[in-house]
Write a structure and sequence with these properties.
The chain has 385 residues and is of the alpha/beta class. 36% of the residues lie in helices and 12% in strands. The strands form 4 sheets. The protein has a 6-stranded parallel β-sheet. A 3-stranded parallel β-sheet has the order 3-5-6. Strands 4-13-14 form a 3-stranded mixed β-sheet, with no helix packed on it. Strand 9, helix 8 and strand 10 form a beta-alpha-beta unit. Bound molecules: zinc ion. Zinc ion (ZN) binds next to loops. Zinc ion binds next to loops.
Length: 385
């Protein structure tokens, strides 16, 4: 990464510059007037697993998916699931699912892209993702970050960093390294080896109530995002999005870099459809992501109603969509001995958003232009840094 000077004179007014006053410069920084000066001075790009691409190269983007695998074994301190015998089949079948998504797009809305939201050491294999990306026109953006304690224990690496002195700082350094140099290679000891495949998003998450380990991950994510410009994308568990947004912003994140995820069901912790709650998050300037479209409590009509509410409030530039599909999930994650029979293959349909949700939105009167803003323009904007 290019080195960045702490104080960029181009951000200061002529008077401040001529006065040469450090105090004036400091005030400008504190007021946020120079925020972008902390970012590298280069054209913004979307960082895919095959390298940076211009934002305009991305068509419709599914902002929260997993491909090809998720494996919780390390969270349960058991050996990771075997990949080798299934590797080829996983790649071929997942590429087929992504190609179906790509083929659902019109020429001007392609090639499609996905953000792969699997965080560090829960089945995130950088080389596997790069190999997948070579088999499909769909762009793949990978994530750094640690997951939460909602469905499994926190990763021991995150726990350890979270309780060390300046653990959030060390965690932020790890995220920055994964964004600017390359993601950790999970074949080996923690932090021993790194690939040259970079992350293009930071994934964080919370349980129904935010745990101390999750708080440390959020603070680290805000720092890493502030330093690199990389967007943060969140997992929520039946609410907690507003709390996440407030903590991330208090910790220095730019609201335009924050995506509050898994919206669309029980987001205020009480109601199945929490329309006022969504508006509160939108007014902070953060993105809201409806990223389980078509699943269980997240049927297309309901998701379309909630999105329509935000569009009616003038917030269509802050809405993102996806499915949260996992083509291969290892279900025997707590077993001490792992066989390839523990993999569960899901027939993931990556076209629900671009076909059924788009149709439901249209029926509610959301215009074709507004739908394109949600599917294409918003993701280009938020993923570029
Ligand atoms: Zn997910």
């Amino acid at each position: 990464m290019e080195s960045v000077s702490f104080l960029d004179r181009s951000c200061l007014s002529r008077r401040q510059f001529l006065a040469g006053s450090a105090a004036a410069a400091w005030t400008a920084l504190q007021l946020g007037a120079c925020r972008p000066s902390e970012r590298p001075h280069r054209a913004a790009a979307v960082q895919t697993v095959l390298g940076p691409v211009a934002p305009q190269a991305l068509g419709a983007t599914l902002m929260h998916e997993h491909a090809p695998t998720v494996d919780w074994s390390e969270l349960y301190a058991t050996p990771t699931a075997p990949l080798d015998t299934l590797r080829e089949r996983m790649l071929a079948e997942t590429a087929g699912m992504l190609n179906a998504f790509h083929q659902s797009l019109s020429a001007e809305d392609g090639p499609g892209a996905i953000v792969e939201c699997t965080p560090i050491r829960v089945g995130r294999y950088p080389q596997l993702m790069a190999d997948l990306a070579r088999r499909t026109p769909v762009h793949i953006v990978a994530s750094t970050g640690f997951w939460c304690e909602a469905l499994a224990p926190q990763h021991p690496w995150a726990v350890r960093l979270g309780i060390e002195p300046d653990g959030a700082g060390k965690m932020a350094d790890l995220f920055v390294r994964e964004i600017s140099e390359g993601m950790e290679d999970p074949h080996g000891g923690r932090g021993e080896r790194f690939t040259t495949i970079r992350a293009g998003a930071i994934k964080v998450g919370t349980s129904a109530l935010m745990r101390p380990s999750e708080k440390a991950v959020h603070i680290a994510a805000a720092r890493a995002s502030r330093q690199t410009g990389c967007p943060i994308t969140t997992h929520t568990t039946n609410g907690g999005g507003l709390e996440q947004a407030r903590l991330l912003l208090e910790s220095g994140a730019d609201p335009g870099r924050v995506i509050i995820g898994h919206q669309g069901h029980m987001d205020d912790g009480k109601n199945a459809e929490a329309v006022d709650y969504h508006l509160k998050i939108a007014r902070l300037g953060c993105y809201l992501q409806f990223d389980r479209v078509g699943a269980g409590n997240y049927d297309c009509e309901k998701q379309a109603r909630l999105i329509h509410n935000l569009v009616a409030g003038g917030f269509e530039r802050q809405v993102l969509v996806s499915h949260d599909h996992v083509p291969y999930f290892y279900r025997e994650f707590s077993a001490e001995t792992k066989g390839s029979g523990g993999w569960r293959k899901n027939q993931a349909d990556f076209t629900i958003v671009t076909t059924q949700l788009a149709a439901s939105l249209e029926q509610l009167g959301v215009s074709a232009n507004q739908i394109r803003t949600i599917l294409v323009e918003n993701s280009r904007r938020v993923l570029a840094f």
